[in-house]
Amino acid sequence: MHKIICVAFLFLNSAVFGQKSVRIILQDLSANKATKVFIAGSFNNWTPGAAAYAMQKTDSNKWEILLKDIPNGTLNFKFTQGSWETEEVTAKGDNVENHYLKVESDSSIKINIYGWKSQPLQPKKHTASKNVYTVSDSFYVPQLNRYRKVIVYLPANYNSSKERYPVLYMHDGQNLFDEYFAPFGEWGIDEALDTLQNLTGKYAIIVGIDNGIAKRITEYNFEDNKKYGVAEGQLYIDFLATVLKPFIDKKYRTKTEKVNTAIAGSSLGGLISTYAVLKYPKTFGTAGIFSPAFWIASTIDSVTKSVSKKIANRFWFYAGEKESADMVENMMMVKNNLQKNSKNNFSFNVDVAGAHNEQTWRKWFPAFYLWWVKADNK
């Protein structure tokens, strides 16, 4: 595993609170020097070749960029030459994990890069199991006047039985079932369920909705943001509850009650899953909340406090200690708000080695699934 190598790290004078500036200096020690370098991270929705995040060359092997308006917390980022097919690697060509920087004041950091991926190390293959089907490549979202790909995982015994099944709706559909479509690796939902359902006899249908790529931040946020734009999360959740769910219930043999309907996602997907249960508590009975991006919604504290006594739902939380500095703290705040004087039910999970990536969420998905179906799969 490649670790960040900090040759220099300098904290500058700044206000204790508010947004900060971070200067990142990259030294390219690779055999084949980069001709252009971009930084991608949580601050730009992990867009690998955004012009606004192109680094400036300052020497034969040095690049630099100044990131402004970075909030306190942990900054997650990587370097590419414009695409994920040209991202940084080790000198041996192995993948590297995200870089992490704790932001508390204006700062500067220097990082060494030892290699670049010139082409995929192995051609990507389709990995979806035979139980994964495409519902539609262009499912119409009337609330947003857009189209989304919708996929579904059906239990292995679906075609040989007359049973009805609980349904779990999941965001970021590209990352759930098929490595071919997953830019950061897949969750392996289908492989996990092929095994879990066979072992436990607890079956469920999983519905995956692709994210809108450039629209992901606004569609997964319920609160307008000065930096990221007008929120569209309320419209997106309206679509799931009033358009997609009725369609799925009509097309497949489902258990339609809230106790048998869950919604889950990671990062911004965790945020919007929380909001979905708050807005439609009689539709979505359970939320699977992985590494939630509560930081982007300043009203999450007041919103959860205001509805906690009005609902009786189930919330499964997960975060890793290798994520942002306030990830676990924010998650605990939301959990405490929803728990106070309420009839809600919770599972709260923290992984000391957990990072903000698909590999970690893949590891924790079975725990969430088993917790959900233990109560919901009647």
**Strand portion, in percent?**
25-35%
What kind of assembly state do the chains in view correspond to? single chain
The total beta strand count reads: 18
The SSE order reads: EEEEEEEEEEEEEHEHHEHEHEHEH
Q: What is the CA–CA distance across the termini?
A: 43 Å
Main sheet overview: 8 strands, mixed
Approximate helicity band: 10-25%
H/I helix tally: 7
Q: What general outline do the C-alpha atoms trace?
A: globular
Structural class: alpha/beta
Question: Which stretches are poorly predicted, pLDDT < 50 over at least 5 residues?
Answer: 1-17
The radius of gyration over CA amounts to 21 Å
Strand numbers in spatial order across the main sheet = 11-12-14-13-15-16-17-18
Average pLDDT rating: 89
Summary, kept brief:
With 378 residues, the protein is α/β, with parallel strands linked by helices.
Task: Furnish the topology, listing elements before pairings.
Elements: E1 6-11, E2 20-28, E3 38-41, E4 56-57, E5 62-70, E6 73-80, E7 88-89, E8 99-103, E9 107-113, E10 115-116, E11 132-141, E12 146-153, E13 167-170, H1 189-200, E14 205-209, H2 216-219, H3 233-251, E15 261-266, H4 268-279, E16 286-290, H5 300-307, E17 314-320, H6 327-339, E18 345-351, H7 358-376
Parallel strand pairs: 2-9, 13-14, 13-15, 15-16, 16-17, 17-18
Antiparallel strand pairs: 1-9, 2-5, 3-6, 4-5, 6-8, 7-10, 11-12, 12-14
Helix pairs in contact: 1-7, 3-4, 5-6
Notes on the protein architecture:
With 378 residues, the protein is of the alpha/beta class. It is built from seven helices and 18 strands. The chain has helices at 189-200, 216-219, 233-251, 268-279, 300-307, 327-339, 358-376; strands spanning 6-11, 20-28, 38-41, 56-57, 62-70, 73-80, 88-89, 99-103, 107-113, 115-116, 132-141, 146-153, 167-170, 205-209, 261-266, 286-290, 314-320, 345-351. Strands 11-12-14-13-15-16-17-18 form an eight-stranded mixed beta sheet, with helices on both faces. Strands 1-9-2-5-4 form a five-stranded mixed beta sheet, with no helix packed on it. Helix 1 packs parallel to helix 7 (358-376). The model is unreliable at 1-17 (pLDDT under 50).
